[in-house]
Amino acid sequence: MSNKFRLGVLGSGKGSNFAAIADACATGKIPAEIAVVLSDVVDAGILTRAHEQKKPAQFIPPGKFRTKLDEEAEHAFVKILQEAKVDLIVLAGFMRVLKGEFLHAFEGRIVNVHPSLLPSFPGLEAWKQALDHGVKVTGCTVHFVDAGVDAGPIIGQQTVPVLDYDVPESLHARIHAAEHELYPKCVAAIARGEISVVGRRIIWKK
User: Fold this and answer.
1) Contact 91, 145 (CB under 8 A)
2) C-alpha neighbours within 13 Å on the C-beta side of residue 2
3) Which residue in 2, 75, 130, 185 is a FRET match for 171, CA 20 to 30 A apart?
4) Catalytic-labelled residue, pool 75, 104, 114, 172
């Protein structure tokens, strides 16, 4: 087994952030390898992208709940990730709130990207929330995952201007582009050991 830093990627959708991270791993910008890709959606694009890149990938039935994994599903996710010996779990459009066993098993080793400048506009459709609120600047945030919703310590942020002619789709597209720049940088910094956590503050080494 490789001694490289190992990533486990979870996603529910098209997998564009997975693709950005996989490309950064392939070019050496992230000193890591993708060990496994898991999805709660049987026909998710992220699984197709992972198979195309010859990465181990599989669907795990999420269970009976709409917004979280049931106990059996959570145990299955944890078991596969532990067997893959992942160092960091990267949420790439994973649309389930993680609870108890999962958070305990990987405490301090789960990251997510959110399409707003947290703590503003947590939750769903953050780009639409920003547009409806009338802010002039929004963006994206990479953060550690804890028991709150989009509430963990902030690793990095990137701003995106809100233009006068924006509609939700155009703003979302530009935020997505910013995510594809920011997320690999933050994952790379973690893989290199370049950040430390002090309370809620993330300190980057110079």
Assistant:
1) yes
2) 12
3) 185
4) 114
Pairing of strands 201-204, 195-198: antiparallel
Helix, strand, coil content of the chain in percent (nearest 5): 35, 25, 40
Please give the DSSP secondary-structure letter assigned to residue 19: H
Per-residue pLDDT of the chain (206 residues; tens, 9 = 90+): 457 899 999 999 999 999 999 999 999 999 999 999 999 999 999 999 999 999 999 999 999 998 999 999 999 999 999 999 999 999 999 999 898 889 999 999 999 999 999 999 999 999 999 999 999 999 999 999 998 889 999 999 999 999 999 999 999 999 999 999 999 999 999 999 999 999 899 999 87
Annotated catalytic residue 75? no
Whether 40 contacts 12, CB under 8 Å: yes
Return the amino acid letter for 112.
N
List the one residue out of 3, 64, 67 whose CA is nearest residue 35: 3
In the block, residue with structure tokens 């509609």: 167
What type of residue sits at position 206? K
Cβ burial of 198 (10 Å; 0-12, 13-18, 19+) is exposed
